[in-house]
Amino acid sequence: MLRPVASAHSQANAKLMVARAQTNHPASGLTPVETEVIQLFVQFSRAVGQPRSYAELYGLLFISHQPLTLDDLAARLHLSKGSASQGLKYLRELGAVREVATATRRTHYEAVAELRHLAGSFLRQQLTEHLSDSPSRLERISAHAQPLTGAARTHTLARVKLLQSWEKNGRRVLPFLLKLLGSQ
Question: Are residues 103 and 13 both part of a single domain?
């Protein structure tokens, strides 16, 4: 099985983040536990193709014993407010983060830690979006294959037929998976 190799830059950033946290370096603002949890979510985010900043936001909220504000998150993770805001918006839409009422006027956030809910939301959002575009894309591919000749045409049309079968099976399986995860 092929495993993605992290770039030297991302490996260096992770080591720097861990080293700063282990010494409680004031520039990091993160404890060693927070750093390790964040890195765990960053690794997972790479596997599912999500931005690192989303994983950092979720990881810090996940391990935090109290809700945090946008400003808290941006400062502690060294993210711009725009990046933190965009990440929180995505995580809220996914159902991974929720707003929490506090005594202050500022909006606070906390992580939703229910795996079934998170997995179901992710599948619904990601797969449904991709499956909705598939039929028209497959039709275009088939149309582009028509001018081909010989073995290239035969092979391409066979592959299109295989992709159509995968798409049909994906549409059939997705509702079952969502029901299994309790997020219908």
Answer: yes
Q: How far apart are CA 172 and CA 55, in angstroms?
A: 30
* Long-range pairs for 159-165: beta carbons < 8 A, 24 or more residues apart: 163/134, 163/138, 164/138
* Whether 163 and 93 share a structural domain: no
C-alpha 122: how far from its chain's center?
Answer: 8
**Closest to 56 measured CA to CA, from 26, 19, 96, 101:** 96
70 and 33 fall within a common domain: yes
Q: Write down the pTM of the prediction.
A: 0.62
SS3 assignment, position 91: helix
Which among 103, 111, 6, 105 has a CA at the least distance from the CA of 52? 6
Rg over alpha carbons for the chain, rounded to the nearest Å, is: 21
Mean pLDDT, consecutive 10-residue segments, the chain of 184 residues? Answer: 47 51 52 93 85 94 94 95 95 89 88 76 70 80 89 88 83 72 56
Q: Which CATH number does the domain housing residue 105 bear?
A: 1.10.10.10
Tell me the longest C-alpha to C-alpha distance in the chain. Answer: 72
Whether residue 15 is found in the same domain as residue 105: yes
- Residue 80 lies in domain: 8-111
